Amino acid sequence: MLTALKVSPLAPKGGFPSLPNINGVTFSTISAGIKYKDRTDLMLASIVPGSTIAGVFTQSATRSASVLDCQKKISVSKNEGKGFAFLVNSGNSNAFTGKNGQNAVDEIIRVTTETLKIPNTHIYTSSTGVIGEPLPTSKITKSIGKLHETLSPNKISDAAQAIMTTDTFPKGATAEVMIEGEKIKISGIAKGSGMIAPDMATMLVYIFSDVKISQKILQKHVSDLSSITFNCITVDGDTSTSDTLLVAATGQSNMVEITSTRSAASKAFKIALKAVMLDLCHQVIRDGEGATKFVEVSVVGAISKKDSHKVAMSIANSPLVKTAIAGEDPNWGRIVMAVGKSGAQADRDKLKIHLGSLLVTENGWVSPHYSEKKAAEYMKNRNIVVTVDLGLGKHSTTVWTCDLTHAYIEINADYRS
Amino acid sequence: MLTALKVSPLAPKGGFPSLPNINGVTFSTISAGIKYKDRTDLMLASIVPGSTIAGVFTQSATRSASVLDCQKKISVSKNEGKGFAFLVNSGNSNAFTGKNGQNAVDEIIRVTTETLKIPNTHIYTSSTGVIGEPLPTSKITKSIGKLHETLSPNKISDAAQAIMTTDTFPKGATAEVMIEGEKIKISGIAKGSGMIAPDMATMLVYIFSDVKISQKILQKHVSDLSSITFNCITVDGDTSTSDTLLVAATGQSNMVEITSTRSAASKAFKIALKAVMLDLCHQVIRDGEGATKFVEVSVVGAISKKDSHKVAMSIANSPLVKTAIAGEDPNWGRIVMAVGKSGAQADRDKLKIHLGSLLVTENGWVSPHYSEKKAAEYMKNRNIVVTVDLGLGKHSTTVWTCDLTHAYIEINADYRS
To answer: Predicted ipTM?
Structure first.
């Protein structure tokens, strides 16, 4: 089925971006035959001793064994003068496979520890793919030696390819920032296309930097930024059992370690990290299953942050709004409906809706300046911006989504066959 | 567009049921040309003096002018020895039309009061159709005289037809119950097909009975039953701005008035009323936009009622679950996902999932007795029952939904053209 998928019409035109190597990180990939033959489906990232690791994970109550294992490790993550590893497979999520799940993780980590000579608490695994099928553990464990032998600093694009499932293009993003005269680099990769309504983290995302930063500050930055990047995207309102975002800072650059959120270096790094995270999450939406439109929903004027998020997500998850956008129909009545049902405080008569720069509603009805013809013209764009001003307060949220098309139904009506 | 719609494959085989006349209620309908020519789009129900009226309405923050007006009236509903009227139009929802909305309602009620000689506080209006277009009020007001002249006790099926929008079949249900040797009759009609995720009440529903009952008890029964009938269905998770359920009890039967919830008569009537409400809400789901499967989701073993409702609605609103059902794919991994994302307390290892009578998962994984072949066979049925036992407590909820198909996208990608 996957081979039949065409590349998303919203795929980046230039293809996969050129990501700079990060000092202290090497990658390798292999076709382990986990679900399909001759498809790269396993990747290893090896990270030098002295690095710090931060992460955020799905809040699903049925999260996978890998996620549970990673969460335990992140909370006690210490720099013990040993290296770290990320080992990720596609083709099988190892979620909801009973005791098999933890057994598989344990066995994979045991072999990786032996092969890479690093502590088992330094090994983070992720699995993505079908839920509920036992992971073919031995296909993974017998590939680890080969992965170890073929590690190379310039294989991050192969790694982005290896973690894809229903994705139609690999996702990567990079940023650079000057700190203390030193060029700090960030390179990140992600996968994700369906089951996207992350709760805390999302999908699979791996970001690497040569920044020197304490684990505490790195974790704080990653958590803060998740709430305004990956937690603000939705393809279908469905939350994965495997969502994982891991960030590794190798500290290989010549700079003083960041140990406070207030320093100029910390702020500069955070801005660069945000750019990478935002770029990756937008790529996930552009590859949303069946997507033909990239949609930004901005809600301003809410009485609380929670309310602005509620309204934005209510619009972004509304099947009626999403099908209207697919049909290039400026059906703003459905936006009003989605505001109304959100549970947030709203006043019909204070609500202002814009499509792009076109004012659509004001004073509880369609604006006298509104032109259906211009709005219909605007809806033909690939990038659509919906702005809702609740007119009640000062809080705002921006989220990103895609339209709901026939292709989404096609992709999902018989995914497993 | 509407004329192109085929009748839902889940439409009742026998067509519209034969509904008994209710003593004290007369109906009339007319083609007022509100949106389309030569289509019945306006109905009047006239209800005798001495009746009691109860109702529940959408909780949307952008609810329509009619809904706001009805809500005001229900809370002060008194039996003043005068008749009541329900006046309902399809083709235009009169929602989000600014001051025009309330002006239209005021004008319609003024003319109805003059024509029917009943107090304006006794007139309940509803409007359903496109959001945001001004109601052609004069088309309605000039039809009221004709509606008044043509009232008849046996036109309830015409009324069911007049309130349809994207519905592919009219919806009606009836029940009888013996109270004090008297046969008490209930006849109800409903419309609804998309934008169905009622919050408090749903869509448009009108139920009539000759029961003799106090307003307080009738309202209590209707509110109680809404929470286990109309508040437990979802087509697309989108909540209408116009949802209205009105129940009129004419008291024309020879029985002592019900004034307590504890009496045998009250309990008997409530059971019959529930049957009618449940039947109507199931018909709405069977006519869900694009539906090919009627799906019951039962969640048991939750630690609270709230949790069981959360899990059931999370499954019933999941696009991934709904597309799998459309594809007749027993993809239970997506049910696990939907349990996980619901926010309710769940323990992966205690979760049991059944498809029909087939045990699918237990002990945190697929059951050893599970047969994918049998499950795939089961998914070919038109009626699908998903049962989730959380294994944690004693609370349960049952909700109803339909699958998500190409036809839903077709119907909604360009509804307004």
So the answer is: 0.72
